[in-house]
TrEMBL record:
Gene3D superfamilies: TolB, C-terminal domain. InterPro entries: 6-blade_b-propeller_TolB-like. This is Secreted protein. The keyword Transcription does not apply. The keyword Transmembrane applies. The chain crosses the membrane at residues 27-49. Residues 1-25 are annotated as: Disordered. Residues 14-25 have a biased composition (Basic residues). Keywords: Membrane, Transmembrane, Transmembrane helix.
Amino acid sequence: MQPRTTRKPSQTKSGKRKSSHGRKKPPIIAITAGGLFAALILFGIMFSLRTKNGMLVIENLPADAQVMVDQENVRLRWNDGKDSATVRIKPGTRQVEVLSGGAKIAGDTVTIESGTETSITVIPRTSKDEVENRQLLTSDNPTPRLFPLDELNMPGRNEAAWVSPDGGRIYWEHSDSGGGNAEIFQAERDDLSVSFGNERSVITGKQPTLTPDELQVVFVHTEPKKFKRLYMATRSTKSDRFENAKELMQFGEGLMFNSPCISADGLALFVNARQQNDIRTTKYYVSRRTSIDAAWMPARPVDIRWNAQQQDAPLTWISMAPDEMSFLATHEMGVGRYRVLQFSRTSKTAPFESYEYLTLPGFGNVYGRSPRYSLARNELFLTAPESYAQANSAAWKGFVPKLWAIRDVDRSSIAQAEQSLTLLPAGSEWHGTVKRNWRPGPTTKDDVIFTVESRNGDQFVALINTDHGTQIRRVTGTVEGTGSLSWESSGSNVLTGSGGMSGSHHGHVKDDYIRVESNWVNSKKQKVDAVYELRRNPEQ
């Protein structure tokens, strides 16, 4: 639902108030669950007030609703259509409560200023116990739920989360209340149903985005005379700090960078850039490379049809889908009010020109910066004010941003989660290398041929041929619509029947490229790390 306007009444010649003009930042009212106040699903009830006695207009009000103002029941005057009602109240600071079925469903303190009309959005929240326990819902059709990531939200600003493909690790920016002393933090969770923990700083910087193996990070670094420059750093393992930060010059000099985003396969880097202090010059760029270890090539513009002047703000926080056919972004400032939107295009050579604001069934409109969708548990991670109810304000100045997650998101609502099943088609053949490292031990590199024998929905059966044809194993796995690829391996060599192994393999597949990170135990009980990098046979 679009935010309603707030208008200041004008007067006729007789002095009577006739119409309203002007705007005011809308306060928010939250629905309770289990007797506790919380902010979760956009319920869509809106209030507006008008002086002198004040007029409270309640839209989408339940048919059996009662309204209490300062603990006194007030008379409702139902408007045409029977979906809204009007109440007259005095201006000032008032406690407004809405009851339905005899139970309180909304309540908050509202300050009414004389001479203005104020809009208030009602947002339901989960109970405190539900937020703390973070239990998975067991319903066949769970409702999206909003959670503050309080285990990560430290004093100061917490924003710009990036989540690993398996959902087990999260990276985000933390800084003081003024945005200074920024550090990028990392935290983990062993089980997707529990909170993140073991948080620690891994590098100085802002706005992290990582490759799928989490060994490279691209980020924005603020330093004197190089305001918001783009850097990349590396590390050897996921438990190390990032080192060897180097500035990326592929996008040119004299620019300010925001919201970098590495693609799911690690081979494309999207970012918006503008000349310093001139938001009207914002453009969108992509730099590509041929492999995960190759250098980034010179950047090229991304064709996004978006009128920043007409829309009052450029697009920010672009999060590209693995097939590069759609992306999530944030529409900030007065027109967009920090709503999340989805862009799409008809082909990879076509411009991005079709978009819609993101609305989740059972939740409503989604507000916030840095939207990142994680397929591992159908979670949408966001940055929003400490009170999510303020997320749809025209400006966030003065708000302290925190990390939030909407869980149990219906993936049909996210365009990038509903891609064609033509990824990894039956009969396709992929050639490349597998790099293996015994822990501890030497690193070896072998040619590999990956052949898809069959495909049934998300499930596939493939033959993996390595070691010059002496090691052929058959695996059964899953490839999601976003290009997330995984399989669990066990059993013996197809040719000899000897040698068992077990382990997990996770990665991404695009039209012509596969990258998989593996952890498994071979027949000699040796722990092995492996990385598969494959390209589709060009003859197919």
